[in-house]
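WARN retry 2 of 3 for item q-0093 after timeout on previous attempt; input resubmitted unchanged.
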Amino acid sequence: MKRFLMVLSILSLMICGCHKSVNPVKEDVNMNYESGEDKKMMLVYPILNAPLLDEQLKALSEELNQEFAAIDGDCEFNMSYRLNHNDDFISLMVKILRGDKEEVKTFLSNGDGSQSYTFEDAFDAKQIKSLAQKIDERLRQSDETAGSSIDYKMAVMPKAENFQNFYLDQDTITFYFDNFADQQIHEAVFTYEELKDFTKLENSNPVYLTYDEILYEPTKIIDPNKPMVALTFDDGPNKYTEQLLDALKEYNCSATFFVLGSMVEKFPQALQRMVLEGNEIGNHTMDHRQLTKLSEKEIIKEVEDTQQAIESIVHIYPKLVRPPYGSKNDTVSRILDYDLILWDLDTRDWASKDTQKIIEVTLNNVRDKDIILMHDIYPTSVQAAIELIPLLQERGYQLVTVSELLLYR
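OK item q-0093 returned
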C-alpha cells in the first residue's frame, strides 16, 4: 500500500504537469511503408531516447517486418501509436494489425523509460471489483452482445492482469482489450473525474499554439491557360515537412498535404504553416488503415477522428480525403461525403528513396493537370521536391493545390 501511494503521488504530479506546447512531442518517428498489389504495410512507432522502450519497439517492428515478408498473398500489417509524455513520464499505446488480428500494447514509465509502472501503481487494487464493474458497463454500452461470451467474462474479471493495458491521455483514461473472440480491440474510455474514486491521477488541459480565428491565406494568381500540376504529400506531417514548406514559400507556390490524424498533434506548427502560407490540408485517415477492409463504422471513425484532430489545430475541416494505398470501393465512396483524391503520377519515392531517381521519374512523366504523389516522411523525397519545384516552374508549370487544379480540369 505504501508503494502504491508513493508512485500514485508521483504519477499524479506528472500527469497534471503534462501540457501541449509549441513543440509538444520531442520524439523522433520511424515509419516503414510498403505497398504491393496484395500486400500492404504501414508501421509507425516513436524513438524516444529511452533505451529499454526503444529496444522493445524496434524488436516489435522487426518481428512484424519478418512476418510480413514471409506471407504470400493478400494481407495488411499496421502499427500505430498514441503518446503522452513530458520530462517526467511516458504513456504510450501501440496498436498492431497482423492480417485480421488486432493487438494493443501499452507502456507507462518514468521520463527516461528506465522504470515501468503497472496497473497496481496507478490504481487502488482494493477497489478493483468496483472498477471492473465500471469497465464492464462501459464496454457493454458500445457492444450490447459483448457480455454473453466466455472470453469477455474472463477478460473483465476483477484481476489486475486483466487491466494492464491502459493509456493516460490529457483528458481520458482508456482501458484496452484485445483477447475477445472477434480478435478486435475493444476500448473502455473514462474521464479522470469518472475514475476519481479509483486513482489520484488527474487530467491536464491541452494548450495549443495561439491561432487567429481569421486565417490569412495568400492569394496566388492562377492562369488557366498555362500548364499546372499539384504536388501532394502523404503520411506527414514529419520533422522534414517544414523544410518543404520553406521551399514552397520561397518559390511562391502551393501543395496539398494529406496528413495522418495520428501525426498532426506532434507537429502543430507545420500544420498551421500549411494553411497560413496558402497550402491545402487533406485527410489521410487516422492510422493509415486500408479502408476497403474495414467496417462502415471503422471507416467513418478513421476519417472523422482525423477531421477533429486537424480542426483542433487549424480550425478548418478538410474537404479532401485520400484513402491509404489509394484503396477504395463502392462502400468507401458511398459512406464518405468527401472528394476522394488519388493521383496521376506516382513517383514511388517510398520504394526508391533516391532523390535523383524521384526527380527523373517526375520530369520524364509529368503532364499538364497531373496530381503527383510523394511523401514528406522521407528526407530523400523532401530533397527531391525542393529541387523539383524550380525545375517544374522552369518548364512552365504552375504548382497549385488539388482543389485549385480541379477547378480547371
